[in-house]
Amino acid sequence: MIRLAISAEGATEREFVNRILAPHLRPLGYAVVVGVDLGGNVSLDKIKNVLPPLLGSFDRVSTLYDFYGFRRRSALDVDALEAVIGALPEPEQRHRLLPYVQLHEFEALLFAVPEQTCTWLDGPPQAMAAMQAAVREKGSPEQVNDHVETSPSHRLKALFPRFDKKLHGPDIIELAGLSAIRHHCPRFHAWLGRLEAWGRSAD
Fold first, then answer.
1. pLDDT digit string (tens) for 121-145?
2. How many Å separate Cα 27 from the centre of its chain?
3. Which of 22, 49, 125, 151 has a Cα-to-Cα distance from 162 of 20 to 30 A?
4. What pLDDT, in 10s, does the model give residues 41-76?
């Protein structure tokens, strides 16, 4: 059994890991836990403090943080930020860490499945059309983000007043299925693929 800890950004990501990711990876021999929930306050300084105890207690460690709202990331793009996180542990531990930063927000994944999102949240046809238009404008669900008023979670709250990030995000992904999300979200798909390959290659 591979003991995998996920350092998660907050409650929404913790729910996703516990309810969806852990059961998905279990057949590959993983025992998955949320090692640390950072409470939505993510920075490199905080990550640097949480990684050593996780790497000391688990076989493998990965992360699930949002690029949007990541504190003090300067001019780093999402790939450079992952590279910096990957270099935080001691050199002999780095091969057991798979950093992942969601572009731009976990809620961007819901833009991959606008029909299921509108169904679950009882949204009108105009709301689904707005989600589809946002994806067309940006090129993919993972690119849906401008600034504070138009980040994925803010867009969803404006379209669906009863939207609750922690409650509805994991619900909708569970309804739609990981395959539907992965089809439209290449970075997310690549992360899951690397976790899957990690499990298959384990001794």
1. 999 999 999 999 999 999 999 999 8
2. 21
3. 22
4. 899 999 999 999 999 999 999 999 999 989 988 889
Q: Which two tokens stand for residue 150?
A: 């138009």
pTM over 0.85, yes/no: yes
Exposed/middle/buried for residue 185 (C-beta within 10 Å: 0-12, 13-18, 19+): buried
Handedness of CA 172, 178, 183, 189 (dihedral sign): positive
